[in-house]
Amino acid sequence: MIQAAIFDVDGMILDTREFIFQAYEFTLAVHGHEVPSRVMIAEQIGRSLPDCYEAFAPEGELDALCDTHHIFQEEKLHLITAYDGLIELFKTLENAGIKLGAFSSRKGNLIPSLSNAGILDYFGVVVQGSDVKNHKPHPEGLLYALNKLEVSPEHAAMLGDAAVDIEAGKAAGVAMTVGITHGFGTRDALVGAEADFIVDDLHSIVPILLSKR
């Protein structure tokens, strides 16, 4: 029986592709580093920001890169949009008595992003990058969220668009993991992470979660 659903944010419930791609492209170019393709950037999404920049610019000044990234994004919140059907999804799950949580590697501007999208109040807990020592695919943030919601992993679902989301769910021992293809991850990556379910849009999630009620 699913009592809680923990959602990744970027690429799962909010379309942040331009918000994130442009931040990496701008930051790396400004600091004189080679700008990787968006496919390569997408492969790193879900990990901590320093880890991502270490992959893109191993000889770079990580603190300076992260600072530029954050400054760029502070002025670009308008690039973030909600995926179709998001409010309907949350209302339906809330009415079914399923507790909702958000678990993201992003920090700083995560709360404003959720607030601007009109969905912050749906979450009983929001875990961001600054709340954990170990980032995805480590399950620390997921377990922290479930503890706050007072729901055990065997009664929870983890939903995300990247392999690290699915891997975190598996490591936490949740009842099910759900991957979605409209974000940064690919279907092949989600299959490789052994997601229990893979969907193409938010509308397909309710039947899956409520089937375990």
Defining traits:
two-stranded antiparallel sheet; 2 domains; DNA polymerase, domain 1; 213 residues; globular; alpha/beta; Rossmann fold
Tell me about this structure.
This protein has 213 residues and is of the alpha/beta class. The chain folds into 2 domains: 4-15 and 81-210, 3-Layer(aba) Sandwich (Rossmann fold); 17-78, DNA polymerase, domain 1 (Orthogonal Bundle), CATH 1.10.150. The protein is built from 10 helices and 8 strands. The protein has helices at 17-30, 38-44, 49-56, 62-74, 86-95, 110-116, 140-149, 163-172, 187-192, 205-210, and strands spanning 4-7, 14-15, 81-82, 99-103, 125-127, 156-160, 176-180, 197-199. The strands form 2 sheets. Strands 5-4-1-6-7-8 form a 6-stranded parallel beta sheet, sandwiched between helices. A two-stranded antiparallel ribbon has the order 2-3. Strand 7 (176-180), helix 9 (187-192) and strand 8 (197-199) form a beta-alpha-beta unit. Helix 1 (17-30) packs across helix 4 (62-74) and helix 3 (49-56) crosses helix 4 (62-74). The radius of gyration is 16 Å and the shape is globular.
